TrEMBL record:
<protein>
    <recommendedName>
        <fullName>TIGR00297 family protein</fullName>
    </recommendedName>
</protein>
<keyword id="KW-0472">Membrane</keyword>
<dbReference type="Pfam" id="PF01940">
    <property type="entry name" value="DUF92"/>
</dbReference>
<keyword id="KW-0812">Transmembrane</keyword>
<keyword id="KW-1133">Transmembrane helix</keyword>
<feature type="transmembrane region" description="Helical">
    <location>
        <begin position="27"/>
        <end position="56"/>
    </location>
</feature>
<feature type="region of interest" description="Disordered">
    <location>
        <begin position="262"/>
        <end position="294"/>
    </location>
</feature>
<comment type="similarity">
    <text>Belongs to the TMEM19 family.</text>
</comment>
<dbReference type="InterPro" id="IPR002794">
    <property type="entry name" value="DUF92_TMEM19"/>
</dbReference>
<dbReference type="GO" id="GO:0016020">
    <property type="term" value="C:membrane"/>
</dbReference>
Length: 330
């Protein structure tokens, strides 16, 4: 992608993220590094998809933020709602795509003079597959983000994907009709962007451009939908959903990290919040208050294996791999 476009666009995104507090300071640095890597790809698609995902994700986060804050609790004990995203969250959603971009640069170099088109001969087949993996990554993470941020506003309680029982809003693995539709819509937006910006080759596929773009659109929309469902399945099985017994609300860890519990199924996390020993000073009172806070929490579903960021990275990596495979079907 041309630096004359990528550099100003990246600076504008950094300014926007700083003003709106969409990212932490280190998160902004991680986003700048990711944007730079994506901009090195000769196609404008990786950088454009990264920008589209960022804008859609941060916008969805702001939708009825005050309402969403009342539906869950923060691990600090305050109201819930998504705060500024951290560097770990940035990399969890974009690392697989960044690695595929770097793979392209390793094979084909930095030169953009001989731009590689899509859907050409076998000589450029590897580049096509890498680009499909990148596009699939953003179809999946966009679908998952919109599904989570908008699905939590559904009037009815979500259903746990593994058992179909009703669970509190914000439960890992909870699926609602509204959330699924939002996810499909997000994947379709990414797929449409891909179809608009793909530089198709002349030659063997000439005359079949419409059919090729239709296949790309269907595959990416489908992969995005698979991504959000896969994220729900992985979250329901490998991620603990902690509920506050006093309010019945899900407790969310800041930045997608694990939520501490006092004992029981929280495992080794209980040791991190043991009661302080000693006399009755003000610090002891605070320690007791903190311990009581953690003791009110219990794991409602899932196993305490991975945190939310690790789930996102695993899902994005799997769908990126599926995207590479799907490219062989075009």
């Amino acid at each position: 992608m041309r630096a004359i476009i990528a550099v100003p666009a990246t600076l504008l995104l950094i300014i926007r993220a700083h003003r709106r507090k969409s990212l932490t300071p280190v998160g902004i640095l991680a986003a700048a590094i990711t944007a730079t890597i994506h901009a090195l790809h000769p196609s404008p698609l990786p950088f454009t998809l990264l920008v589209t995902f960022f804008l859609l994700g941060t916008t969805a986060t702001k939708v009825k933020h005050e309402v969403k804050a009342t539906l869950t609790l923060s691990s600090s004990g305050s109201s819930g709602g998504e705060g500024p995203r951290t560097s770990v969250q940035v990399f969890a959603n974009s690392l697989a795509a960044s690695l595929l971009v770097l793979r392209h640069l390793w094979v084909y170099g930095l030169s953009t003079q001989d731009k590689i088109c899509f859907g050409g001969t076998e000589a450029t087949r590897h580049a096509d597959l890498l680009l499909m993996g990148i596009m699939a990554n953003y179809a999946a993470v966009t679908a998952d983000t919109l599904s989570s941020e908008l699905g939590i506003l559904s009037k009815g309680k979500p259903l746990l994907i593994t058992s179909l029982r009703a669970v509190p809003p914000g439960t890992n693995g909870g699926v609602s009709g509204a959330g699924l539709l939002a996810g499909i819509g997000g994947a379709a937006v990414i797929a449409a962007n891909c179809c608009l910006l793909l530089d198709l080759c002349d030659g063997p596929r000439q005359g079949g451009e419409v059919m090729l773009l239709a296949k790309v659109f269907v595959l990416l929309t489908g992969l995005g939908t698979v991504g959000t469902l896969l994220d729900s399945l992985l979250g329901a099985v490998l991620q603990a959903s902690v509920v506050d017994r006093r309010s019945g609300k899900i407790v969310e860890g800041a930045g997608g990290v694990k939520v501490l519990t006092r004992s029981g199924r929280g495992g080794s996390q209980g040791a991190a919040v043991a009661r302080p020993a000693g006399g009755g000073s003000s610090s002891t009172g605070k320690g007791k208050e903190k311990a009581d806070l953690h003791e009110s929490r219990v794991i409602n579903s899932g196993r305490d294996v991975l945190d939310n960021n690790q789930i996102n990275l695993l899902m994005a990596s799997i769908v990126s791999g599926l995207g590479v495979f799907a490219g062989t079907l075009l």
